[in-house]
Design brief:
This protein is an alpha+beta fold. The protein has 9 helices and 8 strands. A hairpin with a 2-residue loop joins β7 and β8. It is elongated, with a radius of gyration of 32 Å.
Length: 304
């Protein structure tokens, strides 16, 4: 060891004390790196769940860096008082120069502490929506949904979002708590259509397609009520009636898992098209122009 230190001293001109600290620092880094590799290898053999593997892999990096900084600091700084003074001055300078970076680090800690979201969750923060695919010290990554693609389908873009956005923007999590969303499909039929028959058909279709989810949703709401005040009383699908300029609006409303919204709409709409085609007295409405003859079409209020 003495010969190595002397050789490095001759090569670089560093003092023996500095060289010894450098070698100790390198030894610490190698030791922690090897320990992390062993841990990850064991986890990959013992754990089959991908999300659990991911958490072990990410958390092992954080612990390795933390203990590495702690141990190397003890090597380079003699005396806790001097280290505390130095660290305090350094922290104050960094807090001013790297405000956004520090906020993102605090945001990362807050995300983990409050369990705001985890990998696999679907969220919306500000104008950005997507599925969480990675959470890091300074940012998290989402696989974008929506934008130019309809019905919350993936666009294929990965978006890196700084962690400090959680303090300045509203965060919506599709996957936490209730785990279901309400979806609505508006169907407009003409005034001349048999809207009662149309509504009956729609009720049959929506109940056949998604009513099985109501029991699951009710169980989820009971579980969520332990943490949140959610007061839904009705979970089964329904069809609401309203009047619009071009006809009678029949709105299907039902619970669905967020990632299945588009497929459910497609299945329901295909069934509606198939069923409505069987009836001559049910027609879809759309904007039209109509000439109204008051003499022949007006209701005569004076008739008995």
């Amino acid at each position: 060891m003495t010969k190595i230190i002397q050789w490095i001293n001759d090569l670089t001109g560093f003092s023996n004390n500095t060289i010894e600290k450098l070698l100790n620092s390198i030894a610490i880094i190698l030791f922690l790196w090897i320990v992390r590799l062993i841990v990850i290898k064991i986890v990959r053999k013992k754990v089959s769940d991908l999300q659990t593997r991911y958490k072990w892999q990410k958390n092992s990096v954080y612990f390795t860096v933390f203990f590495g900084i702690l141990l190397i600091s003890r090597v380079w700084f003699q005396g806790i008082q001097y280290f505390t003074t130095y660290f305090g001055l350094l922290s104050a300078g960094l807090a001013i120069a790297l405000k956004d970076v520090i906020e993102s680090m605090v945001g990362w800690a807050f995300i983990l502490w409050r369990n705001l979201f985890t990998v696999g969750d679907r969220i919306q923060i500000g104008d950005y929506k997507g599925d969480i695919v990675d959470i890091r010290l300074f940012k998290f990554t989402i696989l974008e949904i929506g934008n130019w693609v309809d019905a919350d389908q993936s666009t294929g873009r990965l978006m890196d979002i700084p962690n400090n956005m959680i303090f300045t923007h509203v965060l919506a999590n599709y996957s936490k708590g209730f785990e279901f969303i309400w979806n609505e499909i508006p169907i407009l039929v003409t005034f001349e259509s048999d809207w009662k028959k149309a509504k009956s058909i729609l009720n049959e279709i929506v109940n056949k397609k998604v009513d099985h989810l109501s029991a699951s949703a009710e169980e989820k709401i009971k579980s969520a009520n332990k943490k949140f005040l959610i007061s839904y009383q009705k979970f089964s699908p329904t069809v609401y009636t309203s009047i619009k300029d071009s006809g009678v609006m029949l709105t299907l409303r039902y619970l669905i898992e967020p990632r299945k919204r588009r497929n459910s709409e497609q299945s329901i709409m295909e069934e509606i098209l198939s069923e409505f085609s069987k009836y001559d007295n049910i027609d879809f409405a759309y904007p039209t122009r109509r000439i109204y003859n008051n003499l022949s079409e007006a209701k005569n209020l004076n008739k008995p």
